[in-house]
Amino acid sequence: MKITDEYIYRQPEKYQVILLHLISVFEQEIPELKLLFKWGIPYFYYNKKPFCYLAPNHRKGFVDAGFSRGFQLKSNQESLVGEKRNTVKSLRYYDLETIDNAVLIEVIREAVLLYA
Fold first, then answer.
1. Full-model pTM
2. Exposure letters 54-69 (e unless 16+ CB within 10 A, then b)
3. 70-113, pLDDT tens digit by residue?
4. Could you tell me how far CA 44 lies from the centroid of its own chain?
5. CA atoms within 13 A on the CB side of 42
6. What's phi and psi for 94, nearest 5 deg?
7. Strand order from edge to edge, sheet including 41-46
């Protein structure tokens, strides 16, 4: 079993289902993505460059899908969380039902264009 799989399956069920759903959407949209285990969390790489991390926050109860070049994204700003970060913006999910796949897919498609 890969270390990313071990990490995901060690998470409480609430986070597991969100992580597994997000991974399936990312992989469907961009099959060339590589899911690695970097900085203690699952991290997608595109063309050998950091693309998006998936980080459960147990204390606050969400999973962050943090796009490495998030501040360069133009669309879906109302859905992206920047907080006090310089480059990353993220989509934040508290449960599976709050995932808007249309927004997620739009952000993924826009983000991959930043790597052209």
1. 0.93
2. bbbeeeeebbbbbbbb
3. 999 999 999 999 988 889 999 999 999 999 999 999 999 999 99
4. 8
5. 27
6. -95, -25
7. 34-38, 41-46, 49-57, 62-67, 89-93
